[in-house]
């Protein structure tokens, strides 16, 4: 079984940037790909800011910072991922976009390179079907924010080989994460519950039942959640929430998974959440969560 030493991350939005921190922090050479140089520059700056805050809080030794940042390599060239032993896809929830990405990666990467998707709602088997290597494909759904949360939902597709899944599982443990095995089922464990739950919170705002701050305060105080649902939605982004809803509702037809109209209105107004400075709450900056 070939060891994983170099990891590729495709997409450096909120999710991809967090996964890249996890990989680089664990000592893996991490090649972060995005089509936008500005997005890479922003992700690198936010990564260093997050790590410096971790040092201030006593959660990271100061001498580790330059090593981690040396592990973190940004690129706008897809060919730079040819050296990777594992490529984790973290682009938005579109089966067509994921298929286009993996079909371009397949001829570039070595035969032993594993492909993984961070999808939270789409079928691993369906994504793997367009990858060119469905036997070397696995679902690896990191929890948001990945740099703070330990859980990773590991899901084999119908064609995933036992060796491929074992390699991915061992890598996940080497990151210091906690993997759990799930079947290739819509929403896996977390989003099966979370997407409808968050939509319920949105509908409370729509119906004027309570203000966002009070809903979040109630959930955190009574249920012990570290973040309220509307705070989490601001971190995820309204545009991403709409895609999650469309993907999950499209395969389950669960009414609670349908995208609330308020989400679409907020997107139209540019109130995407933390990354735009305003969502259900207002933000002075768009620094990475926990930084």
What order do the helices and strands come in, and which of them pair?
Layout: E1 6-10, H1 14-25, E2 29-33, H2 37-56, H3 65-71, E3 72-75, E4 86-89, H4 95-105, E5 114-117, H5 124-128, E6 137-142, E7 151-156, H6 162-174, E8 178-181, H7 190-206, H8 212-223, H9 229-236, H10 238-252, H11 261-268
Parallel strand pairs: 1-2, 1-4, 2-3, 4-5, 5-6, 7-8
Antiparallel strand pairs: 6-7
What are the defining features of this structure?
291 residues; alpha/beta; Rossmann fold; N-(1-d-carboxylethyl)-l-norvaline Dehydrogenase, domain 2; 11 helices; 8 strands; globular
* Helix and strand pattern: EHEHHEEHEHEEHEHHHHH
- Please tell me what the overall shape is: globular
CATH topology of the largest domain: Rossmann fold
Distance between the termini: 37 Å
Structural class: alpha/beta
Rg on CA atoms, Å: 19 Å
Roughly what percent helix?
40-55%
Could you please describe the fold and organization of this structure?
By secondary structure, the chain is of the alpha/beta class. The chain has 2 domains: 6-181, Rossmann fold (3-Layer(aba) Sandwich); 190-274, N-(1-d-carboxylethyl)-l-norvaline Dehydrogenase, domain 2 (Orthogonal Bundle). It contains 11 helices and 8 strands. The chain has helices spanning 14-25, 37-56, 65-71, 95-105, 124-128, 162-174, 190-206, 212-223, 229-236, 238-252, 261-268; strands at residues 6-10, 29-33, 72-75, 86-89, 114-117, 137-142, 151-156, 178-181. Strands 3-2-1-4-5-6-7-8 form an 8-stranded mixed sheet, with helices on both faces. Helix 10 (238-252) runs antiparallel to helix 11. The radius of gyration is 19 Å and the shape is globular. The relative contact order is 0.12.
């Amino acid at each position: 079984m070939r060891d994983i030493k170099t990891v590729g991350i495709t997409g450096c939005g909120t999710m991809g940037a967090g996964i890249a921190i996890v990989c680089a922090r664990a000592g893996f050479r991490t090649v972060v790909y995005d089509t936008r140089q500005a997005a890479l520059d922003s992700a690198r700056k936010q990564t260093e800011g997050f790590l410096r805050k971790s040092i201030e809080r006593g959660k990271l030794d100061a001498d580790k910072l330059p090593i981690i940042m040396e592990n973190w390599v940004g690129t706008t060239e897809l060919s730079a991922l040819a050296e990777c032993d594992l490529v984790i896809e973290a682009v938005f929830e579109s089966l067509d976009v994921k298929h286009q990405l993996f079909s371009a990666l397949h001829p570039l990467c070595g035969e032993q390179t594993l492909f993984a998707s961070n999808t939270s709602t789409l079928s691993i088997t369906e994504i793997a079907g367009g990858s060119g290597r469905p036997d070397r494909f696995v679902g690896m759904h990191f929890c948001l924010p990945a740099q703070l949360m330990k859980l990773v939902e590991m899901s084999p597709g119908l064609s995933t080989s036992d060796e491929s899944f074992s390699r991915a599982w061992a890598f996940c443990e080497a990151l210091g994460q906690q993997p759990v095995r799930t079947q290739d089922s819509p929403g896996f464990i977390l989003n099966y519950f979370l997407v409808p739950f968050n939509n319920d919170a949105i509908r409370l705002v729509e119906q004027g039942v309570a203000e966002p701050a009070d809903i979040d305060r109630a959930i955190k105080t009574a249920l012990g959640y570290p973040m309220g649902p509307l705070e989490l939605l601001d971190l995820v982004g309204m545009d991403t929430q709409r895609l999650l809803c469309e993907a999950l509702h499209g395969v389950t037809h669960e009414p609670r998974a349908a995208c609330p109209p308020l989400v679409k209105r907020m997107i139209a107004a540019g109130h995407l959440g933390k990354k735009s400075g305003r969502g259900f709450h207002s933000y002075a900056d768009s620094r990475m969560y926990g930084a």
